[in-house]
Design goal:
Helix content: 10-25%
Distance between the termini: 51 Å
Strand order of the largest sheet: 4-3-5-6-7
Strand content: 15-25%
Radius of gyration: 20 Å
Number of strands: 11
Number of helices: 4
Order of helices and strands: HHEEEHEEEHEEEEE
Shape: elongated
Length: 196
């Protein structure tokens, strides 16, 4: 990974901040996770003021994020993984971790954030200190990147839509429930569960 990416003045970082709306430690976490994953997979991030070439114009690269925090925005802008395209999936586990699957090379890596946020004298870093530390510290002090089996989620599916019997709204087939032979969306489905 090029060291010029690890500067708060780099165009890649500035574009990431613009996309997210503000600079924060959480965004820096995702920035480093995305850069580390791309390096592990041998992919080149190219994000400059005048051009944005994404690594994943379709579903070549898939990210399964275990959090829905600020860090996920960096993955969208740097790597081209998005919810709408179907190559950014949320598997909420409350961990600052992401698994990246690269379909062309059939390689997969998990990035796990594990940075210490204390100064050498034991004081917790300020917000600005964390931000700078997360952007510039050596990777091994911030996160762990390791290969995992290549078992990516299926490609995005286009579901047919069905009409909810109660609200009348079109709902993707995967998100409906049947009750007495009628189709209901998740918000309208009758819940007569006796499971406690």
């Amino acid at each position: 990974m090029s060291l010029n990416f690890l500067s708060p003045d780099s165009s890649a970082w500035q574009n990431t901040v613009r996309f997210h709306g503000h600079a924060c430690p959480g965004l820096a976490i995702g920035y480093r996770m995305a850069l580390s994953a791309s390096a592990a997979l041998g992919l080149e991030v190219s994000l400059h003021e005048d051009s944005c070439r994404t690594i994943s114009p379709d579903e070549e690269l898939v990210c399964v994020a275990e959090t829905d925090a600020c860090c996920v925005d960096a993955v969208q802008i740097l790597l081209g993984c998005t919810l709408g395209k179907g190559n950014l999936l949320l598997k909420l586990r409350g961990k600052t971790a992401m698994t990246f699957y690269h379909r062309p090379s059939q390689a997969a890596f998990r990035t796990l954030w594990q940075a210490d946020v204390h100064t050498p004298d034991g004081r917790e870093m300020s917000r600005d200190e964390k931000l700078l530390h997360f952007l510039t510290a050596p990777e091994e002090r911030l996160l762990r990147v390791y290969a995992v089996p290549f078992d990516p989620p299926s490609r995005a599916l286009i579901s047919r839509s069905l009409i909810c019997a109660k609200c009348g709204e079109l709902t993707a087939e995967y998100a409906v429930r049947l009750h007495d032979g009628q189709v209901f969306c998740l918000d309208c489905r009758p819940d007569h569960s006796r499971i406690l």
